[in-house]
Design a protein that fits this description.
Layout: H1 2-15, H2 23-29, H3 45-63, H4 67-70, E1 71-75, H5 106-115, H6 120-137, H7 145-160, E2 175-179, H8 192-206, H9 219-222, H10 226-238, H11 245-267, E3 269-271, E4 281-283, H12 286-293, H13 302-322, H14 324-327, H15 337-356, H16 372-391, H17 398-418, H18 442-474
Helix pairs in contact: 3-15, 3-18, 8-10, 8-16, 11-12, 11-13, 11-18, 13-17, 13-18, 16-17, 17-18
Bound molecules: 2-acetamido-2-deoxy-beta-D-glucopyranose (2 copies).
Amino acid sequence: MWLPKLGILTAYVVLGVTVTLSADEKDCFCKIPLKGEVDDCSCKIESLDSFNNLKIFPRLHSLLNKDYFRFFKVNLKRPCPFWGDDGRCALRDCHVDKCSEDQLPPGYKESKQEENKYTKEAQEQLHTDCKEQKELGGIDKTISSEDRESFKSWSKYDDAQDNFCELDDDNSADMEYVDLTLNPERYTGYKGESAWRIWRTIYQENCFKPDTPVPGYGPAEARGAEGKALQSGLDLMRSLKGMCLEKRVFFRMISGLHTSINVHLSAKNYLPAANGYGKGTWGPNVEEFQKRFDPETTNGEGPQRLKNLYFTYLVELRALAKAAPYLEQEDFFTGDEKEDNETRNAVKDLLKIIKSFPDQFDESRLFQGNNKEAQQLKEEFRKLFRNISVIMDCVGCDKCKLWGKTQTQGMGTALKILFSGDTMGPDSTVDAQQKKNFQLRRSEIVSLFNAFGRLSTSIKEVDVFRQLIKEKDST
Ligand SMILES: *[C@@H]1O[C@H](CO)[C@@H](O)[C@H](O)[C@H]1NC(C)=O
Ligand SMILES: *[C@@H]1O[C@H](CO)[C@@H](O)[C@H](O)[C@H]1NC(C)=O
């Protein structure tokens, strides 16, 4: 009942669309980007906003600059198991001037086969895209020799811990440390068919499908347009009502991740230098944001997308709270005693705040009962999630892949925490006493905190956009 209402009110807030509101309401909306409850949670968006922006964000921001958290070990060279070469020339080895025809995206190729009209214009556009992607999507792999040296003692330390389970990649020679602070998640120029295919695959093949088919949901409609991927996913959302809670949760988490990534791309958008020379700058692009979240351009789905961001945030928040007793015992070893002490204290401080949040997501509502069906669903949930992290190997832009992997692994770690331990529910925890049954490895901890950091940043950025839109509309 309040959903349509929320849509209108949000329209006012997010877009400055004039609607008649009582003075009381207006006051309220000037302070918040969205209003109401986060679906499937008992939590209000208003309280989440101030909790995040004032308490969580500043702490996380400084914590994630610590050595322990800023170096993420990742394999960016794992081949994509689902389809061959991405086909896009603008990838890691893109040589802008040497796109051969078989390197062209399928969209171009098909049109050539069909009508033999692969135009010069398209080729030029592709070259421009290639150049942009190569410049913006690459990874800065700078690591000081001092840091490189200390990684050796890290791995010695980590190997000495008895690890409960293998992460598939951990021993691959292609694993390498990347400094996340040198590679901020921002607009990279990665778009079009290639980027769209990733989201299409995730939504179409790997999300739980709604019980009834959704009209108008298909590749033809969305082909080639990046924004349409989101649209396709959200078409699914309309029939979410028929899905059980677990499937909705899964879908919301994926949508929340997608929303978060899009908020970052809008907030750290590339603004080329005015005269066309020199370096461009990075900053918020209100039009980009509105294109993705404005109820008018999104068929009214924008506010729901934003709500899913809050939802995903709550799930990861709860995972951190649940694992707090475990994390409070963690060494956060980097070999620099002073730094490690500081990191431990900063983590404890953050966890204290996180634990104080009153409306935690209640994971015990999921997979209820011990029956076969619940177990099966849990297993399906796990498999699908794993599949989504594998799809990240197919992302054709290194920087996007880096952050895609960090965030899906962080989300996977959150789920692992939520469904570990003998009990589930708001008061349950996992702690170091259970170490035989439950363990987190360095990369899981690093990805969990960084993934949560991304969501926290997004919520803060949404607030900035709200201000900008208000300013824009009042001039
Ligand atoms: C780090 O903390 C430990 C105990 O908490 C303390 O004994 C040690 O002196 C601290 N080291 C530094 C360099 O601050
Ligand atoms: C994993 O994803 C691929 C590619 O979309 C798909 O073909 C496969 O069936 C998926 N597997 C599972 C278990 O969902």
